[in-house]
UniProtKB/TrEMBL annotation:
<dbReference type="InterPro" id="IPR001851">
    <property type="entry name" value="ABC_transp_permease"/>
</dbReference>
<feature type="transmembrane region" description="Helical">
    <location>
        <begin position="6"/>
        <end position="27"/>
    </location>
</feature>
<keyword id="KW-0472">Membrane</keyword>
<dbReference type="InterPro" id="IPR037294">
    <property type="entry name" value="ABC_BtuC-like"/>
</dbReference>
<feature type="transmembrane region" description="Helical">
    <location>
        <begin position="266"/>
        <end position="285"/>
    </location>
</feature>
<keyword id="KW-0812">Transmembrane</keyword>
<protein>
    <submittedName>
        <fullName>Inner-membrane translocator</fullName>
    </submittedName>
</protein>
<feature type="transmembrane region" description="Helical">
    <location>
        <begin position="142"/>
        <end position="159"/>
    </location>
</feature>
<feature type="transmembrane region" description="Helical">
    <location>
        <begin position="92"/>
        <end position="112"/>
    </location>
</feature>
<dbReference type="Pfam" id="PF02653">
    <property type="entry name" value="BPD_transp_2"/>
</dbReference>
<keyword id="KW-1003">Cell membrane</keyword>
<dbReference type="GO" id="GO:0022857">
    <property type="term" value="F:transmembrane transporter activity"/>
</dbReference>
<feature type="transmembrane region" description="Helical">
    <location>
        <begin position="62"/>
        <end position="85"/>
    </location>
</feature>
<keyword id="KW-1133">Transmembrane helix</keyword>
<feature type="transmembrane region" description="Helical">
    <location>
        <begin position="214"/>
        <end position="233"/>
    </location>
</feature>
<feature type="transmembrane region" description="Helical">
    <location>
        <begin position="34"/>
        <end position="56"/>
    </location>
</feature>
<feature type="transmembrane region" description="Helical">
    <location>
        <begin position="189"/>
        <end position="208"/>
    </location>
</feature>
Length: 307
């Protein structure tokens, strides 16, 4: 029984890494005042790009780089449309999501039967041999630990550095930032591309590590859950990380319950992550002042510079 709980913890961290990477990317976007609803499509395009790169190269890190590139490229297109052409952020994000879903399905037809090289086993020496804690915490892909470190680094960047302060000021009051001489549009574009790269890394992680294969639509709504997580976490990186592991645990709970013989309809278990998302958002919405205090003031609003 203890071993099954260790495996559940390990699976939770693995699933939470996907959500954390995508959510942190979207948080960077929203801190700059941009809402990107295209995460699902970007993650799918990144998943096929990363998987294809590993099929041909056999190198995971080249796959991650390809995924980040695909996510950043789609984010660049999205950013150009909403920041310079002032297209509606919500409609454009939905268009990117729909495009990414269809494009990845089309490009991925030839990769459905492909296989990537066997995954190496990752284990931290000595620590991985500790009973329960070893299998649960110390046998993960390095990106699992790097994601947690990145979340801590993002906290430092946003709240302890001048560039982080400028980024937040652009999301709070772009007119004032522009009056002080900061290039608001360029800062927003950099934030959007960085966020897209992180969504791309999340997508590549799914097809390379999480489920090392390619299947149409394999992101399965994780981009939408990541979008909801930023609100759930009230735009705080530490809460995003905790929320990602929470939702990752709910996702993996369905397999754990089935494994220990709990008789629950599979359809109900499959709905758990989405029901949890709706429940959490409903609970948070009961306190709109709390959201209003933490939400970037200019989120989703276009910026028209005077010159």
């Amino acid at each position: 029984m203890m071993e099954s709980y260790a495996l559940l913890m390990a699976a939770t961290l693995n699933a939470g890494t996907v959500l954390a990477l995508a959510s942190l990317g979207l948080l960077i976007n929203e801190k700059a005042g941009i809402v990107n609803l295209g995460a699902e499509g970007m993650m799918l395009c990144a998943a096929i790009a990363g998987f294809a790169a590993v099929v041909y190269s056999g190198n995971d890190w080249l796959g991650f780089a390809a995924g980040m590139g695909a996510g950043a490229l789609l984010a660049l297109v999205f950013g150009g449309l909403v920041i310079w052409l002032n297209a509606n952020q919500y409609a454009t994000g939905l268009a990117v999501s729909l495009f990414g879903t269809g494009f990845s399905a089309f490009v991925g037809i030839g990769y459905v039967q492909e296989r990537i090289p066997p995954r190496p086993s990752f284990a931290i020496p000595y620590l991985s041999d500790i009973p329960w804690f070893g299998p649960a915490l110390f046998r993960h892909h390095p990106l699992v630990y790097l994601t947690a470190l990145f979340a801590l680094g993002l906290i430092w960047f946003l709240y302890r550095t001048r560039p982080g302060l400028i980024l937040r000021s652009v999301g709070e009051n772009p007119e004032s930032a522009h009056a002080l001489g900061y290039p608001v549009r360029r800062i927003r574009l950099v934030a959007v591309v960085a966020g897209g790269a992180l969504c791309g890394l999340a997508g590549a992680y799914i097809s390379i590590v999480y489920t090392p294969l390619w299947v149409e639509g394999m992101v399965a709504g994780k981009g939408w859950i990541a979008l909801a997580l930023t609100t759930f976490a009230t735009w705080r990186p530490a809460r995003v990380l905790l929320g990602a592991y929470l939702f990752g645990g709910v996702t993996m709970l369905q397999f754990h319950l089935q494994g220990i013989g709990v008789e629950v309809p599979s359809q109900v278990l499959t709905m758990l992550p989405y029901l949890s998302t709706i429940l959490v958002l409903a609970l948070i919405s009961r306190n709109p002042q709390w959201i209003r205090i933490n939400m970037p003031t200019s989120i989703g609003k276009p910026f028209y510079p005077d010159s």
